[in-house]
Amino acid sequence: MSFPLDRPGNAAGAPPGATGDGRADVLGSAADANVPGSAVPANVPGSAVPADMPGSAVPADMPGSAVPADMPGSAVPADMLGSAVRADSDACPGALRLHDAADGPLARVRIPGGRITGTQLALLRALAEEWGDGHVELTSRANLQLRALRDVAPARLAKRLAAAGLLPSATHELVRNIAGSPLLEDPAQVTALDEALCADPALAALPGRFLFAIDDGTGDVAHSADVSALPSSAASAASAASAASAASAGSVTVLFAGRDLGLRVRHDQVVPALLAAGHAFLTSAAREVETGRRRPWRVRELADGPARMAAQTAATLGVTLGEPDPHLTRPVLREPIGIVPQRDARVAVGALVPLGRLGPDALRTLESAATLVVTPWRGVVVPGLPADSAETWMRKLARAGLETAAGSRWAGVTSCAGRPGCAKALADVRADADATTRPGAGLPVHWVGCARGCGSPAGPHVRVEATGTGYLVCHAPGNAKPTTGVPAPVGVKPTTGASAPVNNEPTTGAPAPVNNEPTTGAPAPVNNEPAMGASVPVGEVAALVAAGRKG
Ligand code: SF4
What we know:
The protein contains twelve helices and 22 strands. It is of the alpha+beta class. The strands form five sheets. Strands 2-3-6-5-15 form a five-stranded antiparallel β-sheet. The protein has a five-stranded antiparallel β-sheet with strand order 4-16-17-14-13. Strands 7-8-9-10-11 form a five-stranded mixed β-sheet. Helix 7 packs across helix 8 (305-317). Bound molecules: iron/sulfur cluster.
């Protein structure tokens, strides 16, 4: 029997972002990241909405709106894209707004909390086999994607997704961004939040990158979301000496961009609190636009955003902000892999999905489960199993090509799409990662096909970046680090050296970088930092990665 993998390099009590792992931060990355956007297919906007679907008009920021500014392959040159374009549109793909990738249209299907039934997964497999490349991809926000949908009429795709319960709202499909702890034993709050979100017309205006999170108290998803609910009893157990924690035990802490600003709510207030926080974000965002600033997509882009949002949310709820818990830190995180006991005597079985790609065998195996949970670390969990079936599931998953051992070479290794899926790619990074990856521990590793760095973890990691002649292997501090940091070539310690601040706040006066999203129409930098170091042949990457993972 194996148990959840303690993430290497992540010391208890370490400040967020200084975990030495960073995989928890993938939720904060550029919205499901590994798919850059480009021009929205002309046949997608609006027309994809089946007539009998819930929801009425397509939101203003949905298909047909301004061309997104940060998308490689965009029909509009990057240097022509100013803040006005950035202001009204993010580029996140969806089930109605397909992304025109190099290998054909791509659909992203949002599954709040990462939860999907086996029946729904079977439908996605059927769609992938019928119209796509036969695979289903996992994203860094625990959503699912279908690629190479060359011959599908978007309306037909939407209708079949809707019939399976995978597209419950036409108006809100791009904003159903709800992370949930993979081992959340009672997902009812995720469902309630999803339904309440879809029933609130104003919240259809949220950016596609705005992320809610319902945490189970482990802190595995709360700290990287824009607004999240973190049960305080678990948090206080990790900091029992804190009077603030003791006072709030049993309540739920609402975090804003990972920051505790003293908002505590009852369990039954969680959904109203998160919705109120969404409204508070829209209010603050509108104010930013009125003052001539670009429209923000994430809370950390707002000037003093978390504090203002917390105050407005508290006022809406009729509660008073208390004292923030100074001891609240991101706890040691555990990636569900192997057999994981549940509190109700049943078990869950977790597996890694190599490079986030589920093929036909794996899909057919997984769809035999009643319920599945996709994790933000590109893994899957089969929850609620009788203990005596766990070993059977372990063998089934392993036979299907999934990794159930804590020492898997794929632990902590991710990549962007690369060739052939992305026109910007300088290499087939998935093939090279497969050929190169060895078992290892330490910092996570992220392969990218160009300097854009899609899907990069927000925390410290090793970046392996294609150059066209080989790869640069660099330490990337991630977005929890000061903006002045440049990635150091492996073998050279990062020069910034500064500890990551608590709650991901920058230590300088500069606004926190926002996960690869450019603030102007300029070409997108990599995590806002230039690459440096020497390009090496792919055959030399493994040794550099091994050294780099040690930090
Ligand atoms: S090749 Fe570049 S643009 Fe394409 S997905 Fe990878 S990092 Fe993004």
